[in-house]
Design goal:
This protein is mainly beta. The chain has one domain: Neuraminidase (6 Propeller), CATH 2.120.10.10. Helices cover 4% and strands 42% of the residues. The protein is globular and about 45 Å long.
Length: 421
């Protein structure tokens, strides 16, 4: 067994407690959003436990990009945006960005028309009220312009009548209205049987994929898998769940998928505690032609890789979780994590680190720190981070920051420039 011997305490530490401990001032109840009661669009029956798989035979190109030395993070661009947590940014148009996040029981949305220099007023899209806390926001713009907002619904009363759920909102008018609300997957009614952390990917065929962490299938253990559901009609209906990543006696979690620029492979990053007992950044992959038809990636698979190079690996005692993966137009991949390396109190005071990888989302190294000690003190943290590519050389990072001083706690952003040899 891993360090998660006290299942209930540890899962709530990872999934719930940090939000309530770091953001207690944000957690005031609000009135419940009006509208029709959500109706599941798929069966709540769970996917089968992983079983034997056929062998996938692939030939993957290993085209390297020019060596990249570093990312320069511009301290002059650091901005406090709002109270809240678990922020994600997507590019909507040339200079237009969308920001999604949760604040207390609500999920929210803001727009920037100047590449993140300023943001519109907060718009609340849904409120869990007294029944649920809505969190783990995810966002995607489909090829036809449809917007989907995914999120995790967590019952405020563990063990009650309400289940942990993955839900989506759909807009067909560029975010002006969100008339479609769906429950796309249901877990159990206690945190030890939860579903968490949805993330979207659309394939060139138009297929829409939704990945999430799923422990609802393992009532007698502390295991967790990454589950995939698919939609072929812009999110209106979804397939049953299928396992795509599972290591026995471990907790694969927090998936973030990309399709590589060369269209050869689907890759997603996860936190994986199966290597040395503490979470480390890991990549899982399949060829686009296979698209997971060969089954899930287990702990011994060659399609499961430690993300960092040997010289960049975190010591076994250090935590490195909540990874986020993107790829630049020039080919480099970037991976952010929340890391306890050189910090005093493990996950609780972890900060955002960013590594640079090659065109196949391998060999991550050249670590940088977007938010530095002038903002975050030794008792502070930068958690639940994400990255967004703005152009071929510029990225924007966002993080939920507790500075550990008189500065406000909440969502911050900073811009970085990729410096190439």
């Amino acid at each position: 067994m891993t360090q998660y011997t006290n299942t209930y305490q540890q899962k709530n530490l990872i999934k719930i407690s940090l939000f309530t401990s770091f953001f207690a001032l944000l957690m005031a109840f609000a009135s419940q959003v009006s509208g029709a009661e959500l109706t599941p669009t798929t069966s709540t029956h769970q996917v089968a436990l992983p079983s034997a798989k056929k062998t996938e035979v692939t030939t993957v190109k290993n085209t390297q990009v020019k060596p990249t030395t570093k990312i320069n993070w511009d301290k002059n661009t650091v901005k406090f945006i709002t109270a809240g947590a678990y922020s994600r940014i997507i590019k909507l148009a040339d200079d237009q960005l969308g920001l999604v996040y949760n604040n207390g029981t609500k999920i929210n949305y803001r727009i920037s028309s100047d590449n993140g220099d300023t943001w519109s007023k907060e718009v609340t899209l849904a409120d869990g009220g007294s029944k649920y806390t809505y969190t783990n926001a995810a966002f995607i713009k489909l090829y036809d312009g449809t917007l989907l907002y995914g999120y995790n619904a967590r019952p405020n009363k563990d063990g009650g009548a309400d289940n942990y759920q993955i839900r989506v909102l759909i807009s067909h008018d560029n975010g002006k209205t969100w008339p479609v609300e769906k429950v796309v997957y249901s877990g159990g009614n206690v945190g030890t049987l939860g579903v968490w952390e949805p993330a979207f990917l659309q394939l060139p065929s138009g297929e829409l994929q939704l990945y999430f962490a799923n422990e609802s299938l393992y009532p007698k253990s502390n295991d967790q898998q990454i589950t995939l559901i698919r939609s072929f009609d812009q999110g209106n209906t979804w397939t049953a769940g299928e396992a795509v990543s599972y290591r026995a006696e471990s907790r694969d979690g927090m998936p973030v998928p990309i399709l590589l620029n060369d269209k050869s492979s689907i890759v997603f990053s996860i936190e994986d505690n199966g290597f040395d007992g503490k979470f480390k950044p890991t990549t899982i992959r399949t060829s686009l032609s296979d698209n997971w038809s060969s089954g899930f990636v287990d702990g011994a698979s060659k399609k499961r890789d430690r993300a960092l190079t040997k010289n960049s690996q975190l010591p076994s005692k250090n935590y490195g979780g909540a990874p986020f993966l993107v790829q630049l137009p020039e080919g480099e991949t970037l991976l952010s994590i929340q890391s306890s390396q050189w910090r005093n109190h493990g996950m609780a005071t972890s900060v955002m680190r960013v590594y640079i990888g090659d065109s196949q989302a391998k060999n991550f190294s050249s670590m940088s720190t977007p938010f530095t000690s002038d903002l975050i003190k030794p008792n502070g943290s930068a958690l639940w981070n994400s990255l967004t590519v703005l152009n071929k050389s510029t990225v924007i990072a966002t993080s939920t920051i507790t500075p550990g001083n008189s500065k406000p706690t909440g969502i911050y952003t900073v811009k970085g420039t990729v410096i190439r040899n």
